[in-house]
Design goal:
The structure holds two protein chains of two kinds.
Chain A: H1 6-33, H2 42-69, E1 78-81, H3 82-99, E2 103-107, E3 113-116, H4 118-135, E4 139-147, E5 150-157, H5 164-167, H6 174-180, H7 188-199, E6 201-202, E7 205-206, E8 208-213, E9 220-226
Parallel strand pairs in A: 2-4
Antiparallel strand pairs in A: 1-3, 4-5, 5-9, 6-7, 8-9
Chain B: E1 10-14, H1 18-30, E2 35-39, H2 42-51, E3 56-60, H3 69-78, E4 87-92, H4 97-101, E5 110-113, H5 118-134, H6 136-143, H7 147-159, H8 165-178, H9 182-195, H10 199-211, H11 215-228, H12 233-245, H13 249-262, H14 267-279, H15 283-297, H16 305-317, H17 321-334, H18 339-356, H19 359-375, H20 384-395, H21 399-412, H22 417-429, H23 436-459, H24 463-476, H25 481-498, H26 502-518, H27 523-542
Parallel strand pairs in B: 1-2, 1-3, 3-4, 4-5
The chains are: A alpha+beta, B mainly alpha.
Chain lengths: 227, 543
């Protein structure tokens, strides 16, 4: 057999893993949703559900960052209705949030349009929602608006909020983060989000991310600014 | 919770993994679907679509060995198994993104990436149901090949200032390009680009430049798109077309080699590359591309004896004469009952035998090719066959026989730059005593004159003279679609004014059949058919 290209190995492994994750997820959703099933400790099933989604998100990040490094990633901007886009994100997260007793909703002008790569932005927001699920007490909110020629997409929760060193951060590279934090979190997700935002360009402007606390809800607020 | 919109719709789920098919089917059933069928691979999917019309097709991109999801979609569209009113959703793992998402000629309605939840599938399908319902009138006209009707419907939708304006403008620009309303298409695209630089709109501007024969401008546009996004695969195909039209054959070959490195599973792309490489003297590249094309074309609607003939020729040029002869025998086996196959097999055979030094065998094969071609339908002389035979004549040192064939090919394709470019190159590279460029100019001028005169006569109401002029031209150039269209239109208008007669109706039918073979997708054909039907039914109701 010829020597295999690493990207081929990666691609076919990801394909297999995603098939497995898909089946685990579907069966788990059915298992939890079926009232005939009795699970001694339902929160264990919810942890499984949450972690499967996170594993999937990490896999997408890994592959996307790999492609970015190989300069194989191209951004395909399309014209999207933001409200519809949010509805799909919520649909994707509904089952897991429901079993964690979290309410997830979108606040957005139904006519708001935005230009972005749906697949890339979906994976950024999906992993941000995944993160919010860990900290939210009762609510997660998605909202969007136009501000100074940018489209601002937000994911907010009512948890304890981001630590200070994150809300003042401007450089999201893992090396820069290590210096600031206690080195237990690499925050690869933030680096991923910042890179994807940067890839969105229009004229002189390029996208960025920003972390806040207490915007609409009391907890953390992740902002994606897209030109 | 079931949704009442799901029950009346029929679904086809295509996936090579049984568990995955069952999981998706279970989701659909939970959403309220009652008609869900499954297919395990591409062939099975095509088979199922032949038997029944589905409303929604959910197809995994990765289907194991054999066809992938994109090929299933292309095959289904080319075979007219699914129209624009059918929803096709491509299910992908993230790894397929690069391959799949490159703006392709045949794009699915939507992509869903794995894993996905039932709720996401519901949200996505409901959105698609709504889109198709919005576009129902447009799609109905498109399915009926009534392009002017589709344009009216889309304009009516746009006038309502809808939410999905961008999408509607895109559809409008496509319809305008198809109906040769290039100025209107350009204006529509500029409207989109005034808001935001969208690559698809720039791509369409490139196509318009190409259709206006502004090939250098088209080339610049496609190159710019590729520089911005090296995975924009259709831009490579059109760049190669623009380069071929300007007779930059080496550049066109390089463009397609690059495209194939990114996306190797497209039959026309492999075939075009192979033809270019063979003519450019890169027989190793040609043989490889023909081999790929033959493999991909198996069980495909795009399979054609010309691909096999090319493979045989390239093998022979590479000194593999025995393998080449075996390929020519395979042509007949792969295409039983097809007279074209006999022609291509004989023509390729003649070349291989000549390369082997078997001049008697070559002459016999050539005679067989001539005989097969004579037995083919008159429009078959149009271009590909004529060029094939002309090339064989040249290779066999019988260039004098090539000239009349080329003359006919020019007359039949006076406005097809790609074919004209091939003819000119053939003449330049062989020492054929035939000045193709001058001949082309002469023929083009004569044709334009005939057409203009015919149209002028029609306008003046001198139908008899117009019909005489145009039908004479149509007999001389049975493979020229424009002349046939105009001749049919002249007779039709004559009958609309003076009443119908059986003989003329038959002649119009004859022209329509020719155009049907030459350019089945030309919108003017649909218009012609519509007027003809109206004329005939009008007669019946009048008694």
């Amino acid at each position: 057999m010829d020597s295999l290209d690493f990207s081929d190995i990666l691609a076919s492994s990801v394909h297999d893993i995603k098939n497995s994750l898909g089946l685990i997820l579907t069966n788990l959703d059915d298992l939890i949703a079926n009232p005939d099933n009795r699970i001694a400790n339902p929160s264990q099933a919810n942890v499984l559900q949450h972690e499967v989604r996170r594993a999937n998100g990490s896999l997408i990040q890994l592959l996307t960052l790999y492609k970015l490094g190989q300069q194989q990633l191209s951004v395909r901007i399309s014209d999207n209705n933001v409200s519809e886009f949010f509805n799909e994100l919520i649909a994707e997260n509904l089952s897991v949030c429901r079993s964690l007793n979290l309410e997830v909703l979108a606040v957005c002008d139904p006519d708001l349009e935005g230009y972005f790569d749906t697949e890339l932005i979906r994976s950024v927001l999906d992993s941000t929602i995944g993160n919010a699920r860990r900290y939210a007490r009762r609510q997660i909110q998605l909202n969007a608006e136009c501000q100074a020629e940018y489209l601002v997409l937000r994911v907010e929760d009512d948890g304890p909020g981001f630590p200070d060193y994150l809300t003042t951060l401007r450089d999201y590279r893992p090396s820069a983060l290590r210096e600031k934090s206690d080195a237990t979190h690499t925050q690869l997700g933030l680096y991923f989000a910042a890179r994807i935002a940067q890839l969105h360009r229009h004229g002189e402007h390029s996208g960025r991310i920003q972390l806040h606390n207490a915007h609409q809800l009391s907890g953390g607020c992740f902002e994606l600014w897209l030109p | 919770m079931t949704n009442p919109l799901f029950a009346p719709k029929s679904f086809l789920v295509v996936d090579d993994m049984g568990e995955m098919r069952s999981a998706i089917k279970a989701m659909l059933v939970a959403l309220g679907s009652t008609q869900v069928e499954q297919a395990r691979d591409g062939l099975d999917a095509i088979q199922k679509m032949k038997q029944k019309r589905f409303d929604v097709i959910l197809c995994d991109y990765n289907l194991g060995p054999g066809k992938d999801g994109q090929q299933v979609l292309e095959e289904a569209r080319l075979r007219h198994l699914i129209g624009v009113d059918v929803i096709f959703v491509m299910i992908t793992a993230e790894n397929a993104r690069g391959m799949v998402m490159g703006a392709v000629e045949y794009a699915p309605d939507s992509y869903v990436s794995k894993p996905f939840t039932k709720e996401l599938l519901e949200a996505r399908l409901l959105k698609l149901f709504e889109r198709k319902a919005d576009l129902a009138a447009v799609n109905k006209a498109l399915v009926a090949k009534d392009k002017p009707g589709a344009l009216r419907e889309i304009n009516a939708l746009i006038a309502n200032k809808p939410r999905n304006l961008g999408e509607l403008l895109k559809i409008k620009s496509e319809i305008c390009i198809d109906t040769n309303l290039l100025d209107e298409a350009e204006a529509t695209l500029k409207q989109v680009l005034a808001v935001r630089e969208m690559p698809w709109a720039v791509f369409s501007l490139g196509k318009i430049a190409f259709l206006r024969k502004q090939f250098d401008q088209a080339e610049t546009i496609f190159k710019q798109l590729i520089a911005q996004d090296p995975t924009f695969i259709s831009a490579y195909d059109w760049l190669a077309k623009s380069q071929t039209a300007q007779r930059q054959f080496d550049a066109a070959e390089n463009t397609l080699r690059e495209a194939i490195r990114i996306s190797p599973r497209n039959i026309p792309r492999q075939h075009t590359l192979a033809d270019l490489a063979l003519n450019n003297g890169h027989s190793d590249v040609a043989e490889h591309a023909y081999t790929q094309a033959v493999g991909l074309a198996k069980h495909s609607v795009l399979n054609h004896p010309a691909i096999f003939a090319g493979l045989a020729k390239s093998k022979s040029v590479n000194g593999k004469h025995d393998e080449a002869l075996k390929v020519t025998r395979d042509i007949r086996k792969s295409f039983p009952d097809q007279p074209e196959a006999t022609f291509y097999a004989a023509s390729a055979n003649a070349l291989v035998k000549a390369n082997q030094g078997d001049h008697e065998g070559a002459a016999a094969a050539l005679a067989l090719a001539e005989q097969a071609l004579a037995g083919l339908n008159e429009t078959a002389h149009a271009s590909d066959y004529a060029l094939e035979l002309a090339k064989t004549y040249v290779e066999l040192g019988q260039g004098d026989k090539a000239a009349p064939i080329l003359q006919q090919a020019i007359a039949n394709n006076h406005d097809d730059e790609a074919i004209l470019a091939q003819i000119i190159t053939l003449c330049q590279e062989s020492d054929l005593k035939y000045d193709a460029e001058t001949e082309i100019r002469t023929i083009q001028q004569a044709l334009i004159k005939t057409n203009n005169e015919g149209v002028h006569l029609i306008k003046q109401g001198q139908f008899d003279a117009a019909i005489k002029l145009l039908s004479q031209a149509a007999e001389q150039m049975p493979g020229n679609k424009t002349i046939n269209l105009n001749a049919a239109m002249a007779m039709l208008m004559y009958m609309e004014h003076r009443g119908i007669n059986r003989e003329d109706v038959q002649t119009v039918h004859h022209y329509v059949e020719r155009i049907q073979r030459l350019a089945p997708d030309d919108w003017r054909l649909a218009d012609l058919n519509k007027r003809l039907r109206k004329l005939l039914t009008g007669l019946k109701s009048d008694g």
